[in-house]
Amino acid sequence: MASKEASRTPAWSRLEPEGRSPPQNTYSVLLPTYNERENLPLIVWLLVKSFSESGFNYEIIIIDDGSPDGTRDVAEQLEKIYGSDKILLRPREKKLGLGTAYIHGMKHATGNYIIIMDADLSHHPKFIPEFIRKQKEGNFDIVSGTRYKGNGGVYGWDLKRKIISRGANFITQILLRPGASDLTGSFRLYKKEVLQKLIEKCVSKGYVFQMEMIVRARQLNYTIGEVPISFVDRVYGESKLGGNEIVSFLKGLLTLFATT
Amino acid sequence: MTKLAQWLWGLALLGSAWAALNVGALGLELPAPCRDVLWPLPAYLLVAAGCYALGTVGYRVATFHDCEDAARELQNQIQEARADLSRRGLRF
Ligand SMILES: Nc1nc2c(ncn2[C@@H]2O[C@H](COP(=O)(O)OP(=O)(O)OP(=O)(O)O)[C@@H](O)[C@H]2O)c(=O)[nH]1
Ligand SMILES: [Mg+2]
């Protein structure tokens, strides 16, 4: 039917802008989970709510690393509730780390934009429409959420954690001049091909990975837009990053300082 | 050039300029009062940089937004989400 339509349309009218609307963007949200049984249904609900209200095309890709708490079971229930076109389960057998979880998820993403966020409710889906608007505004390659600018902020942090966070950020800004204010946050939107290129280039693991992504992005002359976000400390479940967080941060920072 | 190399270059440049002026190399003879100021200048700069760092970090810690509203909103939405999901048959 569509081809019939097209053949009847005179050639000149096909040149008109309304004759051919641009292909619709699709946003693939990558949700890596490890023991997020309580958080996963809530974050998915909030994602669905945000996307239905804003009307953008989306899919949610859940990458569970064999969580012993039964996250996978909840994910399967969510798949049934919301449909397997919206919720895609791409589990792995065992805990293989965040970086490879993103690579694994991206292989299965059909969208032309990828949104990366934590599943622990620290990152609120209500900011996603703002990310998308920001991206369109400057055709940015990356849009990064930032806790350190404008109305951005945190909830549930004591003074010590604030000092460490601000101090680490200050040192990072001085040493790396990365062109983005929040390097350790992981709430970001990428053009798919940009994320692919960046992941290929990045060598570090875990926490430092987020930082390296932005540093490499600057090296490759990708443009970065920023959106202030509120970061609410996780309510359920426990942090997967242990006590040597500061040590590994410093190691990573110095490595990037000396190699990029 | 890596960031480390940039820093080393910058420091080397400033350092050699400072040393040259101090010893009066290359015929750069400074009047005595100037040299008295120049000699401890790196120490002053270091202290100033330290104060700037502490001041900036302190100010940013003090003005770090506490997102009380966001936390409250999230709590309400969690209740809403739980109710809605239970209705749709999710077993938590
Ligand atoms: N698939 C997968 N997901 C992971 C792994 N480690 C962490 N995650 C998920 O990645 C996200 C971020 O991990 P968090 O433990 O919240 O790390 P964080 O945000 O730095 O620390 P807290 O929020 O303080 O707990 C969460 O959604 C985790 O469930 C992993 O090895 N595999
Ligand atoms: Mg978290």
UniProtKB/TrEMBL annotation, chain A:
The keyword Manganese applies. Pathway: Protein modification; protein glycosylation. GO terms for cellular component: endoplasmic reticulum membrane. Residues 1-25 are annotated as: Disordered. Its EC number is 2.4.1.83. Residues 28-198 form the Glycosyltransferase 2-like domain. Pfam families: Glycos_transf_2. It is an enzyme of class 2 (transferase). Keywords: Endoplasmic reticulum, Glycosyltransferase, Magnesium, Manganese, Metal-binding, Transferase. GO terms for biological process: dolichol-linked oligosaccharide biosynthetic process; GPI anchor biosynthetic process; protein O-linked glycosylation via mannose. Its cofactor is Ca(2+); Mn(2+); Mg(2+). Gene3D superfamilies: Spore Coat Polysaccharide Biosynthesis Protein SpsA, Chain A. One of its GO terms (molecular function) is dolichyl-phosphate beta-D-mannosyltransferase activity. It is found in: Endoplasmic reticulum. It catalyses: a di-trans,poly-cis-dolichyl phosphate + GDP-alpha-D-mannose = a di-trans,poly-cis-dolichyl beta-D-mannosyl phosphate + GDP. InterPro entries: DPM1-like, Glyco_trans_2-like, Nucleotide-diphossugar_trans. Transmembrane segments: none annotated. Component of the dolichol-phosphate mannose (DPM) synthase complex composed of DPM1, DPM2 and DPM3; within the complex, directly interacts with DPM3. This interaction may stabilize DPM1. Transfers mannose from GDP-mannose to dolichol monophosphate to form dolichol phosphate mannose (Dol-P-Man) which is the mannosyl donor in pathways leading to N-glycosylation, glycosyl phosphatidylinositol membrane anchoring, and O-mannosylation of proteins; catalytic subunit of the dolichol-phosphate mannose (DPM) synthase complex. Belongs to the glycosyltransferase 2 family. This is Dolichol-phosphate mannosyltransferase subunit 1. It comes from Heterocephalus glaber.
From TrEMBL, chain B:
It is found in: Endoplasmic reticulum membrane. Pfam families: DPM3. The chain crosses the membrane at residues 43-62. Coiled coil: none annotated. Keywords: Endoplasmic reticulum, Glycosyltransferase, Membrane, Signal, Transferase, Transmembrane, Transmembrane helix. One of its GO terms (molecular function) is glycosyltransferase activity. It is a multi-pass membrane protein. Pathway: Protein modification; protein glycosylation. GO terms for biological process: dolichol phosphate mannose biosynthetic process; GPI anchor biosynthetic process. One of its GO terms (cellular component) is dolichol-phosphate-mannose synthase complex. Residues 1-19 form the signal peptide. InterPro entries: DPM3. Stabilizer subunit of the dolichol-phosphate mannose (DPM) synthase complex; tethers catalytic subunit to the ER. Belongs to the DPM3 family. Component of the dolichol-phosphate mannose (DPM) synthase complex. This is Dolichol-phosphate mannosyltransferase subunit 3. The lineage of its organism: Eukaryota, Metazoa, Chordata, Craniata, Vertebrata.
